[in-house]
Structures are given as structure tokens and as C-alpha cells.
Amino acid sequence: MTxxxxxxxATAAETGDNRLLSDPPTYVCKQAGQSITVDGVLSETAxxxxxxxxxxxxxxxGKPKLPTTAKMLWDNEALYVAFVCTDTDIWATMTQHDxxxxxxxxxxxxxxxxxxxxxxxxxxxxxxxxVVDLRLVKxxxxxxxxxFAWNASTMKTAVKTTAPVNTWQVSDNPRGQWTVExxxxxxDLDTLPHSPPQDGDKWRVNLYRIxxxxxxKDEDDEYSAWAPTYYSPSYHTVERFGxxxxxxxxxxx
Length: 253
What we know:
Layout: H1 10-15, E1 26-31, H2 45-49, E2 53-54, E3 56-57, E4 68-74, E5 78-87, E6 106-112, E7 120-125, E8 131-138, E9 144-147, E10 156-161, E11 176-185, E12 202-211, E13 222-225, E14 242-250
Parallel strand pairs: 1-14
Antiparallel strand pairs: 2-4, 3-13, 4-5, 5-11, 6-7, 6-12, 7-8, 8-9, 10-11, 12-13, 12-14
């Protein structure tokens, strides 16, 4: 069993923000116990049984106006992550791999298997199922130095929407949702203490969503997270990542 190091506490002393001393959230990730088809539908029994995560505002100040629910599963091949994003105007215009998706609407998974942030991984998916995948090294400035050359070459992603993408300019859409499903193979992550993980292994992980109104009113942007980072504008506060615990138990047990 491998345990990622505890969060670095120096940040609280540096900033005077005692919230940084609080323990990050923990998610016990159970075995899927069945084949997962990555189609954005989440119809498998395993997904229905998986424990939900409700994202909160990044600054830790409450719940977003447009909720996001996430779930995680695993098997011997991959970590599975799903997001269900409530939205009123699903939109995206970027269509190329490694485009700056974070400038529009996107969900993000940050993975630090060793707890050292050296390196860690960032995966983003937008409503058009376009992907950004990055390998990052923590810099002295606290942000990750992006390495675009790295690719999660065997990863699978899918997006399913209940309303058409980019129709906001025609009429007011009713509240709908877009669902993202990912299978992140362990073989694509080159810093794993164990591949596949062992029962009880712990990684540092965070889940994020950027919600932006289609009319681009910046003051209405919402930044939500599983583990609040208490910083604006950075999601790269690795010390605040949540703790993902791999369990050999089947989901629902």
C-alpha cells in the first residue's frame, strides 16, 4: 500500500488563511466489477451505485448556482471519472486537441499519484468532447509548468448532452445537463507507485468545473471544485487536492 504525503502546511502560515489547515476531503473509490462502456450515458449498475460528489465553489464559500455531480470507479486497467453538469447554455467553440479549453466551459481532473506534485497530471474535457491532457511540474510560483507534449494516448472520453451545444443564441434553453465520462488508463500515467493500484493506495486528486455563461459575462463565471482550493484564480493548489483511496471492495459494498 502506498500513501501520498500529507498536505503541505506552510501555505497557511504564509497566507494567514487557517482554512488551509483543514483536512482535504476523502473519496473511497470502489471496484467497478463490470465492464464500463465510455459513452457518456452512465447506464451501468456500477455508476448507479458509486458514491456521488457534489462540487462546491472553489473559494469554499458555498454551492454553485449550476450544480455538478461527480463519481469515480476503477478496475485493473483504468480510473473512471464521470461528471454530470447542470447548465442552461451549453457551449464550446474550441475543437482541437490541447486548445486552451479552460477559457470556456470545461471539466477538469487533476491527478498527483505520488503526493509530491512532481509531476502531476491535468485532463480537461469540453462539451464537444475535445481534450486537453498535460503533464505538469510544480514551479516556485505555485503553478504547474505545462508540458503539452505528454498525451494520455489510450484514454477514452465521451460527452452526452440533453440539449444541443451552441444553441443559446437562438432562444433561452431550459435547464439541461452535459455528462462527461472518462477512462484514464493507468499505463498512461508514468509515475504510479503501483500499476494497477493496490488496495489502500492513496493519490491526491481534484475535480473541477468551469461554468461560463455563453454571453461571456465574466462576473457570472462559476469555478467549482471537489476540494476547495481557497485561491483565485488558480486550481493548481496541489496541497488542497482531495485524497482518493483505492478500495478492492466492489462498488455498493
